[in-house]
Amino acid sequence: MEKAIKNAEEKMKKSVKALQDEFKTIRTGRASSALFENIRVDYYDQKVPLNQVATISVPEARLVIIQPWDRSVLPEIEKAIMKSELSVNPNSDGKVIRINIPPLTEERRKELVKVAKNMAEKNRISIRNIRRETNEDFKKRQKTSELSEDQAKRGMEDTQKLTDKYIDEINSVLDSKEKEILEI
C-alpha cells in the first residue's frame, strides 16, 4: 500500500514540475532566457535548441541578448526567433542579437492568462487520473484479498489527501503566474 501511494505522489510531483516548466515558456512583460528554451535553430541541417548554439543573457528587465558561438548561425537564429510565437523582433549587429521585450497589451495579457489556466487544468486532470489509477489498484488488490477493506479504504483516503495537496499546489503555481502576467 505504501509503495502505491509513494508512486502516486511521485507522479503528482512530476505533474506540478511539468506545469512549472510549461509556465516558463509563457511570455510576461519581463525578459527571461526561459522564453527561448523551446526555440530550435537550423544548424548544419539539424534542428538544435537555441541554447546549444548561443549564450542567452538578460542584462535588463526588458532586454535579451543572444550571442552565437559561431557567427555564421546568426541568420538562422534570427529566422527561428521570428517564426516562434513570441512576437518579438530580433535586432542583429552582425555579432549579437538584441531583443527588446515590449510590454504586453491588456488583451494579450488576458489571452495568456487563459492559456495558463488551460495548462493548469490539463495538469489537474493528470493528477485526478493518477488518483483514479491508484484507487483502481487498491480496489483490485482488495478483490484478490491482498488488502483488507479497511486497508483499501485508508489507501484511497490517503490518495485523496495527496490529490488535494497537489491540486492546491497547481492552483498556487497558477495564481503566481497569473499575477506575473497581469503585472504592468
Tell me what portion of residues adopts beta-strand conformation.
5-15%
Please give the share of residues in helix.
55-70%
**Count of helical regions:** 4
What is the terminal separation in angstroms? 49 Å
Uncertain regions spanning at least 5 consecutive residues: none
Strand count, sense and closure of the main sheet?
Answer: 4 strands, antiparallel
Strand order in the sheet with the most strands: 3-4-6-5
Average predicted local confidence, pLDDT: 89
Describe the structure.
The chain has helices at 2-24, 74-83, 106-143, 149-182; strands spanning 40-42, 47-49, 54-60, 63-68, 90-92, 97-100. The protein is of the alpha+beta class and 184 residues long. The strands form two sheets. The protein has a four-stranded antiparallel β-sheet with strand order 3-4-6-5, covered by helices on one side. A two-stranded antiparallel ribbon has the order 1-2. β5 and β6 (97-100) form a beta hairpin. The radius of gyration is 22 Å and the shape is elongated. The chain starts with a helix and ends with a helix. The mean pLDDT is 89.
Question: Could you give a quick summary of the protein structure above?
Answer:
With 184 residues, the protein is α+β, with helices and mostly antiparallel strands. Helix content is 57%, strand content 14%.
Features of the shown structure:
184 residues, alpha+beta, 4-stranded antiparallel beta sheet, 4 helices
